[in-house]
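So, does this match?
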Amino acid sequence: MTDTKTIERWVGAVLAPEVRVPGTIASPTEVLPSRAYLERFPPAIVTAFGRTPAGAGALAELIARLRAICAELGVPPPAAAVDLEQGAGLHFRGATRLPPALALASAACGSSGAEPDELDWIWAAGELTAREARACGAELVLAPVGDVNTERDNPIIATRSFGDRPSEAAARAVALLEGLRAGGAGACAKHFPGHGDTSQDSHVELPAVRGDARRLRERELVPFERLVAHSSDCVMIAHLDVPALTGEAGLPSTLSRAVIEEVLRGELGFRGTVVSDAMNMGALERFAPRYVRALAAGCDVLLCPHDPQAAAEELLAAAGTPALPLERLRQAAERALALRESLRSRPTSPVSAADAARLAERLADRALRSSREHWPLGPNPRVGGVRLLESIPAAETPEFTALLASLRGELASLAGDLDVQPVFCEARAGRGRYGLSADERERLRALTAEAARGGRPLALLWFGSPQSLDRAVWEAGEVPVLLALAPTPPLVAAAGRFIAELLARGGTAPKARRLPAALG
């Protein structure tokens, strides 16, 4: 008979509680498991967050403090899993911020459809991310994103995806995975079985994925099949309503044995660790007991329990019952513990700050696309004649506000005669939509119409996916568009460099390579 202490250790191993610096979107205060929790339910993995609206916080120090507490308590220190889709600088202060996945895809694109992607660029991004993550105390990178973003209004994936074509998205995701492995970090493919064809945000509600099983296998599952074949350490299960795979409308894929055991492990042959998407997301709000059901369905590690103590007690109460056989709990715990030991034993090496900054700059510069090879400029170039207008919509975070202020000052120092209109679209939890509202599109249409009638020369600076950009705006030609893909530090800086170089060339833009995804 298994003793209570062993069962408690198993329960601790399968739960990955949050560790947060103060000021994240989810919590104004620091989040750390209590000493009593750590001693009774020592986690194999924690899910760590250092991103705040103003930028990355002191997450490395917080992880180190957590591990020091574990050492004092005499329990093994956990591995740290962090969502580093934009490089280690997304959550770790002082590390390098990289462009998001679709911008990496753009950096890798060839000059024409006949040219293959230059995947070494994406591999290099993965390797840098891994080396910096390990230096900061994180062993598991919650990437690559394997979603094929075919829904242009997807509110939560968008530029987090490597593209809208299955084979290309798959190859790009594999390149990032291989780079992460080379740099010494573990990889987690997400969000199985595919969050790219959804118009709802699983942070808020349960998104529906409609389509038959054949279509899902030909599109959504293609990148995951490749990532599994390349031995991804983990696969993250999304909270999705996919009746073609679950066999039951309204059942989240996280709670579906058919999705995890039959499709992921059976059909795709996955032998690694299955992790859930965050268990505190709105998609699971009405599905109790959520932790017992997810574990029973085949998840091995449950990320971000809304209340770690309550989740542990839920699992403890069910352990050994038909709802959660001890063998299933033991199996999940052993996979979680084996993953921790594997992650922490991998070799890595430091990277110089200069090399990291150089790579980030080159990736961002290569990612940009201009709709025209020549931009019409006004007849009166002068210092102060290049104006950055107020963004559409208005900047929503301190980080983007500061980036625009810096860009405005940079452009004002250039000699030219041009108005630059920044437009941004951002996939963010709880925002509810991606792209512009009807009112914002009408405001933009009026501005471009005025410029086309002979008003002051205007260029659009589009910090969003090409899928959110109307094809007519890109192809019409009256107003040039600089596609900068996302409102993030490396891409805003790259946009400033692009415009400065273009003005120095009298309005001539570098020859553009192909787009990483189709226009809207």
Remarks:
- The mean pLDDT is 95.
- The chain has 18 helices and 18 strands.
- Residues 391 and 421 are 6 Å apart (CA to CA).
- The radius of gyration is 23 Å.
